[in-house]
Design goal:
The complex is a heterodimer.
Chain A: E1 8-13, E2 34-35, E3 39-40, H1 42-51, E4 56-60, H2 66-72, E5 86-90, H3 106-112, H4 114-120, E6 124-129, E7 132-134, H5 138-148, E8 152-161, H6 163-166, E9 170-175, E10 178-184, E11 190-202, H7 203-215, H8 221-227, E12 235-239, E13 244-246, H9 250-259, H10 263-269, E14 286-288, E15 293-295, E16 297-299, E17 304-305, E18 308-310, E19 313-314, E20 319-320, E21 325-327, E22 330-331, E23 336-337, E24 342-344, E25 346-348, E26 353-354, E27 359-361, E28 368-370
Parallel strand pairs in A: 1-4, 1-6, 4-5, 8-12, 14-17, 15-18, 16-19, 17-20, 18-21, 19-22, 20-23, 21-24, 22-25, 23-26, 24-27, 25-28
Antiparallel strand pairs in A: 2-3, 6-11, 7-13, 8-11, 9-10, 9-11
Helix pairs in contact in A: 3-7
Chain B: E1 7-12, E2 33-34, E3 38-39, H1 42-50, E4 55-59, H2 64-71, E5 85-89, E6 93-94, E7 97-98, H3 104-109, H4 112-116, E8 122-127, E9 130-132, H5 136-145, E10 150-156, E11 166-170, E12 176-181, E13 190-199, H6 200-212, H7 220-230, E14 235-239, E15 244-246, H8 250-259, E16 286-288, E17 293-295, E18 297-299, E19 304-305, E20 308-310, E21 313-314, E22 319-320, E23 325-327, E24 330-331, E25 336-337, E26 342-344, E27 346-348, E28 353-354, E29 359-360, E30 376-378, E31 383-384, E32 389-390, E33 395-396
Parallel strand pairs in B: 1-4, 1-8, 4-5, 10-14, 16-19, 17-20, 18-21, 19-22, 20-23, 21-24, 22-25, 23-26, 24-27, 25-28, 26-29, 27-30, 28-31, 29-32, 30-33
Antiparallel strand pairs in B: 2-3, 6-7, 8-13, 9-15, 10-13, 11-12, 11-13
Chain lengths: 376, 400
């Protein structure tokens, strides 16, 4: 049972669940959706893997991955620019004109990458989606997986959920920590143990499952592995108890961002001993003008604020002119708001420009989304 | 391997910066924080990269730990290059003995073999003492056009300040005919900015000659430049008229930070065409809490501000608790200002803690005798205990 974390391969699925936030993923992957003032969704899982000592991570992409490639670059910010291993982007891989490489599920996606997975020589693999805002310690997860003797360990969280939250998720029926049954996309509500889509298993098991099931035309990890093999394989549930948020629609995206305005939450998510890394842009510090009034907000470098900002999240390079009021809003990178304008309950995507003397508002808890580059 | 470079920069970063007192007790002057997220050395390094100079030797001597760590492999400034890039050059031991850098000229002399590796036509000599944005490639073009052996960047200073600088006397075409280091009664206002471009062959010749002269002090301003002029070499003054600030004293460092908060800033840090890069650890955006009041200030990532911040520069990872007041001050990275504490007209060093109800500094209008007023300074890693006070102009380097 001797291993170290460099012997654990990380595999991230960049595109899964992006249908649940069609606005934000229109021109990008789930993994590259901006979050929390300066991050992108992929930063959380990727930083977690890097902080846990994992040195080989593959990101499987399907479509719209230009923004992700741009964000990741050489992977140096995550300390995953390595001679041996490091970060590998696994783009769709069409085979002999038979298909365009656009897989349907995780299993056929992994099938395209089997040579990469084998080549890494890692003994264990951690699989995850990129729809979580989380700072996980994979060392503890892999330790517990090995100690439990399970074939597959799935990370889950027990809580009161709504139908919206379970619409695109699996839920477990547990006996102790053993998974006894799996319900997929049941759209149930109440107290449930929900799958967070992070799994650990031996690489050899992963390869044989993928080989066997894809040859039978199967592609879904949750249906064809978790659900179908539930009796056959020993599946262990790992209850995650730290701070996390899952993005399952634009409202949950909005609420998850706003949760960071609570200092405790932010401190749990981004701690100095387990930082969340991201691509830096060399912006100057944020500048507050004479008579600016800012309360209860998260503000990134490069912002210039001369107006009033309350309960809002300002990504880097946002400009708020004099006489303008921003409330309960998320303004992404380089949003510019002119003078004497009022912005309430709004999410602006990158590079949105809002002119002078306007009122742009939506009702509370029902944020209105303004697409990338729009000029109002 | 072809390592040839047209131009190599040598950055003198070994200075102690003794006039910054407690702020340079643990770090060399070029590593002193400035403008919220920068350190002084970011300016010459970024200028090099933006000017197309990709090979920079950084000469260190005094307290190099933080500086070495900060520069790392130079990636933050895009200076992690296959050929060239940034190189840290500490003093070293040779078969004939070990020697510290004795003066600016001697420091370059001891590293001639580093420069020789790149076989350059020109060498730029820089210091890590100033805040400015400058395109060295324009100065290099000037140097070439004039057929100069040495070009010195100069800036017009007020006549009453001229005695602090090396003062140039130049003809209309820019050729320098005299140079006086820190004159008591200055007759010109053309001050040397401490930025030199040399044709390398000439530089090397004069450095070797100066080294053989045991009576010389081995300094560019005192020895090399006068010697060039004495021998009738073509020395030119290159006029620079942008923002340039010496931050070698407590007052000038505080001033330079306050100048960033003006409505019309002379030094535009938000200009994307000439970015100033810095090596920052990753931190979340800063949180402005429910009780915060903040205006006319700069705040960096990783801060938590729940008190009042007015006309101040706040570096990364700083905490200002509810009920604390910070005004006309500069807070270095990681400083903590606790509930009820007041920090005004002050500089608080890295990771120092100002405890509950402590009072640091005072507004000039509250002091009757203006000679007793000055910026208060709390050094690095210091605790100012509950209810304690630090008087204006006071500099503390031990916890109180």
């Amino acid at each position: 049972m001797s291993y170290n974390m460099t012997n654990v391969l990380g595999i991230l699925f960049a595109n899964t669940h992006e249908g649940s936030v069609p606005e934000l993923s229109a021109k990008r992957t789930m993994a590259s959706i901006p979050f929390g003032g300066r991050f992108r969704m992929v930063d959380f899982l990727l930083s977690g893997m890097s902080n846990s000592g994992m040195s080989k991570v593959g990101i499987i992409t399907r479509t719209n991955y230009q923004s992700l490639l741009d964000h990741i670059g050489s992977a140096r910010p995550w300390d995953l620019s390595r001679n041996d291993g490091g970060l590998t982007l696994l783009t769709p891989f069409g085979r002999n004109n038979q298909d365009n490489g656009l897989f349907k599920g995780k299993l056929d996606a992994l099938y395209s990458c089997l040579s990469y997975i084998r080549h890494t020589g890692c003994e264990y693999a951690v699989l995850s989606d990129c729809d979580l805002v989380i700072n996980p310690d994979f060392t503890h997860l892999v330790d517990e997986h090995i100690a439990s003797g399970a074939d597959i360990t799935a990370v889950c969280h027990t809580d009161d959920y709504t139908e919206e939250e379970t619409r695109d998720a699996a839920c477990f029926k547990l006996n102790g920590s053993k998974i006894e049954a799996v319900a997929v996309n049941r759209q149930a509500s109440g107290r449930l143990t929900m799958d967070l889509n992070i799994y650990v298993m031996k690489t050899s098991l992963l390869i044989s499952l993928v080989d066997d099931l894809v040859s039978l035309g199967k592609y879904s990890f949750s249906r064809d592995v978790l659900q179908e093999k539930c009796g056959e394989l020993n599946m262990h549930a790992y209850e995650f108890s730290g701070f996390y948020r899952r993005i399952c629609d634009i409202e949950s995206y909005y609420r998850a961002n706003m949760a960071l305005l609570c200092h405790d939450n932010l401190a749990k998510l981004v701690s100095s001993d387990r930082p969340i890394y991201t691509k830096d842009r060399a912006d100057a510090p944020a500048k507050y003008g004479f008579n600016s009034q800012v309360t209860n907000s998260l503000v990134a470098n490069g912002c210039v604020i001369e107006g009033v900002v309350e309960n809002s999240i300002l990504f880097r390079g946002v400009k708020v002119a004099k006489g303008t009021v921003i409330k309960n809003s998320i303004l992404m990178q380089d949003t510019v708001v002119g003078r004497d304008t009022s912005v309430m309950n709004i999410i602006t995507d990158k590079n949105v420009t809002i002119g002078d003397g306007l009122t742009v508002a939506s009702s509370e808890n029902c944020p209105l989304y303004i697409a990338k580059g729009r000029v109002l | 391997m072809n390592n040839k470079k047209e131009c190599v920069a040598m950055l003198l970063a070994g200075g102690q910066g003794s006039r910054l007192y407690a702020l340079t007790k643990k770090v060399a002057k070029p590593a002193v924080p400035y403008g919220g997220k920068y350190r002084i050395i970011d300016f010459p390094l970024s200028n090099c990269v933006n000017s197309g100079i990709d090979t920079v030797g950084v000469l260190t001597q005094y307290q190099p730990l933080v500086l070495n760590d900060y520069i790392g492999n130079g990636q933050a400034w895009n200076l992690d290059r296959v050929h060239g890039g940034v190189h840290i050059l500490p003093p070293y031991q040779t078969a004939s003995g070990a020697q510290w850098y004795e003066g600016t000229a001697n420091a370059i002399y001891q590293n001639l073999s580093f420069i020789d590796r790149y076989d350059p036509e020109y060498v730029v000599i820089l210091s890590g003492d100033h805040i400015y944005k400058m395109d060295y490639s324009k100065m290099l073009n000037f140097h070439k056009e004039k057929g100069a052996e040495c070009t010195i960047a100069v800036i017009d200073v007020p006549i009453h300040e001229a005695s602090r600088f090396g003062i140039m006397f130049a003809h209309e075409d820019g050729s320098v005919y005299d140079f006086v280091e820190k004159p008591k009664e200055p007759k010109s206002t053309l001050a040397s900015m401490g930025i030199y471009i040399f044709s390398y062959k000439t530089l090397k010749k004069y450095l070797i000659e100066n080294e053989l002269d045991t009576s010389a002090t081995k300094d560019f301003g005192k020895n090399i430049i006068p010697s060039l002029l004495e021998h009738g070499e073509r020395v030119f003054a290159y006029r620079f008229d942008g923002y340039w600030k010496d931050v070698g004293t407590i007052d000038s460092l505080w001033d330079a930070n306050m100048e960033l908060l003006a409505v019309n800033v002379d030094l535009d840090l938000y200009d994307t065409s000439w970015r100033i890069y810095s090596n920052n650890d990753s931190a979340a955006p800063h949180i402005i809490g429910k009780n915060a009041k903040i205006q006319s200030s700069m705040v960096t990532n990783g801060c938590y501000i729940d008190g009042t911040v007015d006309t101040s520069v706040v570096s990364g990872g700083v905490t200002v608790e509810e009920g604390a007041l910070v005004q006309y001050s500069v807070l270095f990275p990681g400083a903590v200002i606790k509930k009820g504490a007041v920090v005004e007209y002050a500089i608080v060093g890295e990771n120092s803690v100002i405890c509950e109800n402590a009072h640091v500094g005072a507004a000039p209008e509250t002091i009757e005798n203006k000679d007793e007023w000055g910026v208060a300074v709390v050094g690095q890693d210091i605790t100012v205990s509950e209810g304690a006070s630090v008087a204006p102009k006071q500099i503390i380097s031990e916890s109180i």
